[in-house]
Amino acid sequence: MEAVAERNVIPPGPKGVPFFGSIRAFRKDAPRFLIKAAAEFGPVSYFRLANQRVFFINDAELVKEILVTNQGSFKKSRALERAKILLGNGLLTNEGEAHLKQRRLVQPAFHRERLAGYATSMVDLSVRARNRWADGSRIEMHAEMMRLTLAIVAETLFRADVETEAAEIGEALSTVLAMFNLLFVPFSEWLEKLPLPAVRRFEKARARLDQTIYKMISERRASGEDRGDLLSMLLLAQDEGAGMSDEQVRDEAMTLFLAGHETTANALTWTWYLLSQHPEIEARMHEEIDRELGGRLPTFDDVPRLAYTERVLAEGMRLYPPAWAIGRRAKVDYQLGEYAVPAHSILLMSPYAMHRNPRYWPEPERFDPDRFLPEASADRPKFSYFPFGGGARLCIGERFAWMEGVLVLATLGQKWRFRFESNQEVAYQAMITLRTRGGVPMRVEAR
Description:
The protein is α+β, with helices and mostly antiparallel strands. It has 18 helices and 14 strands. It has helices at residues 23-28, 30-41, 60-69, 78-82, 84-87, 96-106, 112-130, 141-158, 166-183, 188-191, 197-223, 230-236, 246-277, 279-293, 307-319, 351-354, 374-377, 398-415, and strands at residues 44-49, 52-57, 74-76, 138-140, 238-239, 242-243, 326-330, 334-336, 339-341, 346-349, 416-420, 427-430, 434-437, 441-446. The protein is globular.
């Protein structure tokens, strides 16, 4: 490989303004900013966010190179480093040997035999949710999906019932995510030390989330019971002859508790919205649910049979991937094709932008689950679609999330259809995850 110094080529890209670069346009609407950059400047573009150099990658093979082939040349992005203020040294924020050790510890919670047991809880809690509604009732879909996925992750991974706390936890999570936007601006390390109202709200919300996690830990430690769930695995784990501290358990539990609930809720919310806008696709999904289940509740063994329902979910996550951007930081000078990437630069990859790349997705804005038929996807490169990331940092709960999404869609869709109650399109809110802005009001209709 030629030395970077000998091929000091910088990609084209938006110029921005002196000192601040493109930070204003990026913060205003980052996903659209990236789509525009890819359309104007091609598969690799360059811009600055204040003093930070950013290389934006919108090519599937180059994404594979960064996330898989040469992943050792990169480390986690500043976004994940800053996430430690909430998540501590959990699986998402750790790296190197510590990350691999924690991943090996947590992995058994997502093995196939465990997933089969989780499926029953997912369906039972979905039945409880669908029974709360009546024909003609109005719901806010994002709030309902947040409540449901929170109950699912608490029950399956921690054997805890937090449904009575769902509203408080949801409010705290929204506050935390709003503050994260501020924490990612340049010099935010100083801002978080100031007695600003936003900082105080963040600290209060973080304390509320900690209250839930530490309560689960203390109750389990007091009982001494091994329930065979993730929390028991963490509490029984030995690290160089000593058990994990409550703080270590808290960091892992907080990471999986929030990541496993927020992202799936967003994916389901967007999918229900898209179905409400495409009644012919909704009818086809309902037909499959009725045909395959025959009126009974779905089980773990039904998931492979609900192929169209899974494709609906896949297409929902294509258009609105919960993790809309993934970043890596170059450890050393790196040659990316013809371009020189100086050490410490950010390499930014966006599932949102890649999933709309017309090179891989004809008519990219069209909602079409059949894009994911085997024959339709055979020639697409793997990293033209990566809602769960890739490489050593591939989302550990990917199989859990696919199963949960399909079972929730099938269980709720078996009884109800949902009609969007607004004459305006739903807008996104690109925070750490891709949320809906202002909620998704819907009317429940009996099938």
